[in-house]
Design brief:
alpha+beta; 2 domains; 6 strands; 9% strand; binds zinc ion
């Protein structure tokens, strides 16, 4: 009995594709071995000790900002490399699936490929999240700097390019007021308030900022949602500072900080 045979053209296509996969898979450990690792987030100046002079604090703040900018720059090539790896794994997944359907590749090889694709996606998501967190921290630093250079009188409101701030007179408490803000936002926009930092975060801690009674909301203050939220804060007398466009060429990092600007930590509780 004679079996139907593939045409020689199909066979060579399959062989070429299989060879490509073998070569591509063999390259993976090599590529990963070369992965430049982003260094750990900078630890800003250590939390200020009581009695430290303000000029020392200024120097510490400047060096924190420089360290953060350097750390952000170190993430960029890693992010680009992870994106290339994700594109490659996506392409390989399609080839594997095709070969599996033709009976050339085993189900376990396809499964292994899927795991590689999931990992590549996770690497991209993780590093993007890390960069966004750094971008927000750089915006926070700008807020703190403006607050120090041009303190706002109680009840004062100011709008300058890329910055809106209000020194609301109402007492503000993270514990008591956040649910009120969440209810307002949910009722107005039909979705949850996008909170990016609720109180102190490890990165605020690391940078030596007291964020214990502050809330960061990941809304672009120049958007209509951001505007509506700020109007609500202002009408409620709640202090806030909102900034965007602090990082040249990057839109990310824009957010609204609710509460007084974070002072630098003086000692720890
Ligand atoms: Zn904040």
């Amino acid at each position: 009995m004679c079996h139907r045979r593939r045409s020689s053209g199909n066979v060579s296509t399959v062989l070429v594709a299989a060879a490509l996969i073998v070569v591509a898979l063999a390259c993976v450990p090599h590529v990963l071995a070369q992965t430049p690792r982003a260094s750990a987030p900078p630890s800003g100046a250590s939390p200020s000790e009581p009695g430290r002079s303000s000029s020392k604090l200024d120097k510490a703040a400047a060096s924190s900002a420089q360290a953060m900018a350097k750390y952000r720059a170190s993430l960029e090539p890693v992010e680009a490399m992870y994106e290339r790896e994700l594109a490659r794994q996506t392409e390989l997944a399609e080839i594997r699936q095709e070969l599996y359907e033709r009976g050339t590749l085993s189900a376990s090889d396809v499964q292994q490929g899927r795991r590689a694709l999931v990992k590549a996606q996770k690497d991209v998501d993780d590093i993007r999240r890390q960069r966004l967190e750094v971008d927000r921290m750089m915006v926070e630093m700008r807020m703190i700097e403006v607050g120090k250079q041009r303190p706002l009188a109680r009840g004062g409101y100011e709008e300058t390019p890329g910055l809106v701030r209000f020194n609301g007179p109402a007492p503000w408490s993270l514990a008591e007021d956040v649910p009120k803000l969440q209810r307002f936002f949910q009722a107005r926009f039909g979705r949850s308030l996008p909170i990016s930092a609720h109180g102190q975060t490890p990165l605020h801690d690391r940078m030596g900022f007291d964020h214990r009674n502050a809330l960061d909301v990941a809304l672009d203050p120049s958007s209509s949602d951001g505007r509506a939220f700020m109007e609500y804060l202002r009408s409620s007398g709640i202090p806030f500072i909102a900034a965007w466009g602090a990082i040249p060429g990057a839109a990310s990092g824009a957010h609204i900080h609710v509460g007084q600007p974070s002072p630098r930590l003086v000692g720890r509780r």
